Amino acid sequence: MNKVLEYFKSLSKDVFTKDITVYGYESNYPYHLISSILPYLFSNLEIKENLALKSNSNRDGRIKEKKYLVIHDTGDTTRERNAAYWSHVVKTQMHSDMQYHASFQYVVGNDGIYHNIPDNEIAYHAGDGTQFDYKLYYTGIKKQRDCKVTIKKGYYYINHQNTNVLVPSTSRPLFQSDINDDGILVVIKDDEYYLGETYFNQTYQKIANRGGNNNGIGIEICVNQGDDIYLNYQLASKLVAKLLDEYHLPLDSIKSHHFFSGKNCPQTLRENHLWSHFIKLVKTEYDVLQFEKEGYQIQLVPLSDNILKNGRITSNPQKRQYKIITKKDESEEEYEYIF
Description:
Elements lengths: L2 H9 L5 E6 L6 E6 L12 E3 L18 E6 L9 H10 L1 E2 L2 E2 L6 E4 L2 E4 L20 E7 L6 E4 L2 E4 L2 E6 L19 E4 L2 E5 L1 E4 L4 E4 L2 H4 E6 L7 H19 L6 E3 L1 H4 L5 H5 L3 H19 L3 E6 L18 E8 L2 E8 L1
Parallel strand pairs: 3-8, 4-17, 4-18, 7-17
Antiparallel strand pairs: 1-2, 5-6, 7-8, 9-14, 10-11, 11-12, 13-14, 15-16, 19-20, 20-21
Helix pairs in contact: 4-7
């Protein structure tokens, strides 16, 4: 068995179902989530170009190096507000008969992946403004086994050592509990710790990180009723894996909107404890992309009626049968999975 089939075999038992709540700013709804046969979507990545006009006020136009992939969900559960709808909102700057000022590079839904703002431009999605770029502050503290950031007397501390990096100033003292749930950026360079630029978000009353708008590629995931929500997560993960590869970014460059503002977004992923699974989807897509770059061709052959050709399971996930065929050069190999 070649390494690709071995890889898929190692993941083949990770099928699950989960009753979740899908969250929206107008209404929520219950949803029965069924995973796919594998944390990989057997389909090609297709992106629909629908760029906002250069004259739009929500298209900044300034070019910035990208350090992050910023994950959001639309927070819109209204049935007809799919990816095409939200892409149109960015392009026309109109939503519910009101002017729309935000923007993001991509929006993902069952109806496709839409590209709204060029990747290398600033977009208005992360809530951290555009005054500050990605920046690191030297702490002089050597790398240790663990890294715990705390606040004491207006400074950040790492493992009880003063970094000499100031906590953001605001009208009240800031404490450990004021840091957003995802923490602040810590980078290790030459075995020493560096801290990222932070600020205090007045709206969400949290210490958050800079660089989301300027140095992040914003990706919105649709949560509208009628969509296959898990398919949206898989489509988004395929897009994220492609961007990781294209811009030579590490896996930990994937950040939630919350990291940059303190907002509870992407709320459905966060509230249902699915964030780590989403990262697993991305990693799997990235790994398979590397196999494909080595020359492997991969084909799924569903052998039971409840499996679609892209690997989605429609019902009864405990019973599934399928075959995966790999081709490379003149060699062809297959393996049949029966559960």
